[in-house]
Structures are given as structure tokens and as C-alpha cells.
Write a structure and sequence with these properties.
The chain is of the alpha+beta class and 163 residues long. The protein has 2 domains: 3-78, P-loop containing nucleotide triphosphate hydrolases (Rossmann fold, 3-Layer(aba) Sandwich); 96-161, no CATH class. The chain contains 6 helices and 4 strands. The protein has helices at residues 43-50, 73-78, 96-101, 126-132, 134-137, 149-161, and strands spanning 3-14, 17-28, 58-63, 66-67. Strands 2-1-3-4 form a 4-stranded antiparallel sheet, covered by helices on one side. A hairpin with a 2-residue loop joins strand 1 (3-14) and strand 2 (17-28). The longest helix has 13 residues, at 149-161. The two termini are 29 Å apart.
Length: 163
């Protein structure tokens, strides 16, 4: 099976302090991978390195065979990778539908055909998100504060994905 995401020998530093020492992982399409570890073990640094938020000094990160090293985080997001922080960042006083109607950044409305790596049939629409997370379809009128933690995470993922 070909890797969708391939990380090899990643070494990331904060100043002179090395945080990652040759980390590697491979994620195939449809596969779920979990990182476990105590505080300070490098889980967040690995994610930040993959997304270009804390660029690694050595190693490689490839998504669908394309190197992510040196790309700006917004370019990585345009390629189809999304990061949903633990804080969820949904609007709890708005309904599920209202949350899905809000763009998550100025980039959401400014994609051009040239920069867009998705075909129209692969774009995430509100309908596709609701098909993926049918629980949200049943709760469209509920406020974000009325959702379970898992439903809030689904909504956060949906908000990051809709274009």
C-alpha cells in the first residue's frame, strides 16, 4: 500500500535544543495512526513539523509523493491536510449550521483554480461534510454548546474542510 503521508528521519529543533531525533511514520490512505506519549515527548512538535509550523532541520515529509519541506503552512493546507487543534475553536453560541457557514480563514474564499489541488468533485461541501458526519445533520439547529466533545470535534473538522 502506498503511503499518503510519509515522514522519514525528522529532526526538529527549538533554537539549539533538539526536540525530534530521527522520527518517522507512514500513513496509508484510510489508515488511522495514533501518537501516544507523556508531556514533552514530541507529539505536538511532530505535528507542527509536518504542517510547517516548526520546520524541521533534517529529514523529509511527503504528502501524496510531494515534499512539504519548506512550504508555508497555508500551502500545505491547500494541498488537503488539515489540523484541528484540541481547543476545537467552534462558536459555541452559534448553531451547527451557522458554524459550517462561516469561513475559517481569509484563504477559504480566495482559492484560485491554479492554486487549487482539488477537483470540483473532490471538494468538501457542506453536504459532503454532513454525509461524513451524519450526527451533525441531525443537530443542525443545536448550538455548539449543546454538542458532545466528539460532535464538537466533528464540527471543527467540518469547519476546516468546507470550501
Amino acid at each position: 500500500m502506498t503511503a499518503l503521508l510519509q515522514v522519514q528521519e525528522l529532526q526538529t529543533f527549538y533554537g539549539d535544543a533538539q526536540a525530534l531525533f530521527g522520527v518517522g511514520l507512514s500513513v496509508a490512505e484510510g489508515e488511522f495512526v495514533t501518537m501516544l506519549g507523556r508531556n514533552g515527548m514530541g507529539k505536538t512538535t511532530l505535528i507542527r513539523s509536518i504542517f510547517g509550523l516548526t520546520p524541521p532541520r533534517l529529514g523529509s515529509v511527503e504528502y501524496k509523493g510531494q515534499s512539504l519541506i519548506g512550504l508555508a503552512p497555508f500551502r500545505i493546507a491547500q494541498m488537503g491536510l488539515a489540523l484541528v487543534p484540541q481547543g476545537r475553536r467552534i462558536f459555541k453560541n452559534l448553531s451547527v449550521l451557522e458554524n459550517l457557514q462561516l469561513p475559517t480563514s481569509s484563504l477559504a474564499g480566495s482559492r484560485t483554480k491554479k492554486a487549487d489541488t482539488h477537483t470540483n468533485e473532490n471538494r468538501w461541501t457542506r453536504e459532503k461534510i454532513l454525509d461524513e458526519f451524519p450526527q451533525l445533520r441531525d443537530r443542525l439547529q443545536n448550538g455548539g454548546n449543546e454538542l458532545s466533545g466528539g460532535e464538537q470535534q466533528m464540527l471543527a473538522i467540518g469547519r476546516k474542510s468546507v470550501v
